[in-house]
Design a protein that fits this description.
seven-stranded mixed barrel, 511 residues, seven-stranded mixed beta sheet, mainly beta
Length: 511
């Protein structure tokens, strides 16, 4: 079976009114080779339920270029296709590859997307402002060059907006929305991250088409704009009920309407997997501008340059622990036959090590599947800004102090491991003092992978940099139990191949 690939040229021609006047010339009787693009007329019998009971049931209600994505069930497997509506002809044209059932009613799935961001040959990109409708119990009948589709599409989410003062911004979390539809796999992808909306002149933000990221909690957290607190509220089933619309007043200190005041500097997450239940914290880092690099450090720390990070983000309170790694991956990492042991540190609260960049990518993918979040590697700039203490920075040499023994497990003399305060191995996280943001072990214990390819600094000011576009080595930061004090400085840089694993190398999550 060959999956349907959209004929964008044909679709564009149709929408521009360049199609033949004789609709019969568009009809191609299906061949059985599975390679020919078949075109037919679609008769759409049914409709689409809009939010709050409004129904789009007749052809004149459809916008020019509206598209239905259809997954046909056939005796030989699934065939995918699409139907595009033309207002100029008042007709739907359907296209597909392969062979669909003829002469008898068969099952199909139908999807429709309001306000998609982009469409391609293989996928549709969506946003929180894209409404998703489907009918997975639809049916079709192919006869005489006409596909008769019987479908009643219904929304897959509720929709919600905030009410406030024109121009007011509201940042919130706790919701999940659809981000993409894969035509080839017939799957919808979701994500749940912080979102910021602006109140319009009508007193409302745009609608978000979403569900609760954690349906069993039904909680929404609103950022107050102050780094030290936020508002959180738990809702009943009526809020974000499928197909329903609603709004929430933006909470303030003087008008909270049942919203609870909570610590806005962190988020707690819990992972249940492979016999372990692990809770970990992510610490909020507010945006800001800082001077990245060092005039007195190594050559690759120069030139010092201004970096502006425009968005808030979260950093793991600690390095990823062995408990969290095992809960997600279900096995311990290895390097040359070696694995975690008491030699370099073994236990739930010890940092994970022997993890390559590629291993960590797999970990992040699985963690996101388990949590519905979008965890990731920090960029090098994000890492250094957080290590320095963000906007709370006091300018320390190490992350949280000018006295390295206060904040780091490290080696005083690399030629004399007996001089190490780490005693030749990792230590449990959070056994040294945190930095200004409450982040632990950003100096020492284990080096931490960053997102960036390793490259030279530029002297020009940068905004939200992500490093070199390509390379052979990835950046890692922070020093380790095997590092001297110089390598544990917040400005120090190092690099290594993304496939390498070592007893002194781990990583920290960003969000």
């Amino acid at each position: 079976m060959r999956h349907f690939l959209f004929s964008m040229l044909a679709a564009c021609t149709l929408m521009l009114g360049g199609c033949t006047n004789d609709i019969e010339e568009l009809i191609t009787e299906p061949a059985d080779d599975g390679q020919t693009l078949h075109t037919a007329i679609l008769e759409f019998n049914g409709g689409i339920d809009r939010f709050e009971g409004q129904t789009r049931a007749v052809a004149s209600d459809w916008a020019d270029g509206a598209r239905l994505y259809i997954q046909y069930t056939t005796t030989s497997g699934r065939v995918d296709g699409a139907a595009t509506y033309s207002q100029s002809t008042g007709q739907w044209e359907v296209q597909y590859y392969g062979t669909i059932t003829r002469g008898q009613t068969a099952k199909c799935e139908v999807y429709y997307f309001d306000n998609p961001q982009t469409t391609s040959l293989t996928s549709v990109t969506l946003s929180a402002q894209s409404a998703v409708f489907s009918d997975n119990q639809a049916s079709y009948l192919y006869e005489d060059g006409v596909v008769k589709l019987s479908a009643h599409l219904k929304p897959l989410t509720g929709r919600l907006r905030f009410r406030g003062t024109a121009g007011q911004q509201v940042s919130f979390s706790g919701l999940s929305w659809y981000t993409a539809y894969s035509i080839i796999d017939n799957t919808l992808s979701t994500q749940a991250t912080d979102m910021t909306l602006t109140v319009g002149n009508d007193g409302y933000t745009p609608y978000v088409y979403a569900s609760f990221a954690k349906p069993y909690l039904r909680q929404i957290t609103v950022d107050s704009g102050d780094e030290d607190y936020a508002f959180r509220k738990t809702f009943d089933d009526s809020v974000l009920a499928t197909g329903k619309s609603g709004f929430l007043d933006i909470p303030t200190m003087t008008s909270r309407n049942g919203w609870q005041l909570v610590d806005g500097t962190q988020q707690d997450f819990t992972v249940l997997g492979n016999g372990k239940t692990v809770t970990f914290k992510m610490i909020k880092v507010k945006p800001g501008t800082f001077q990245m690099g060092s005039t007195s450090g190594d050559s690759d720390e120069k030139p010092v340059h201004s970096v502006t990070l425009t968005k808030s983000y979260y950093m793991g309170e600690t390095e990823v622990t062995q408990a969290l790694w095992y809960a997600v991956m279900g096995q311990n990492p290895t390097s040359g036959g070696s694995t975690w042991s008491s030699t370099y540190g073994l236990g739930d609260n010890y940092p994970a090590y022997y993890v390559s960049y590629e291993d960590c990518q797999q970990f992040v993918t699985k963690l996101n599947q388990m949590t519905g979040q979008q965890f990731r590697f920090p960029t090098e700039a994000e890492w250094e800004f957080a290590a320095r203490g963000g906007m709370k920075s006091k300018g320390y040499t190490y992350s949280g102090s000018n006295t390295i023994d206060d904040v780091a497990w490290y080696t005083v003399n690399s030629y004399d491991l007996g001089s190490s305060n780490a005693n030749y191995g990792t230590h449990q996280v959070k056994t040294k003092s945190p930095n200004e943001l409450g982040l632990y072990d950003m100096s020492g214990n284990v080096w931490e992978w960053c997102y960036d390819w390793y490259g030279s600094y530029s002297s020009s000011a940068q905004t939200d940099p992500t490093g070199a576009s390509s390379g052979s080595y990835r950046v890692y930061r922070g020093g380790s139990w095997l590092s001297t004090a110089s390598d544990c400085r917040t400005a120090n840089r190092n690099y290594i191949a993304p496939t390498d694993r070592n007893s002194y190398l781990g990583f920290r999550l960003a969000l």
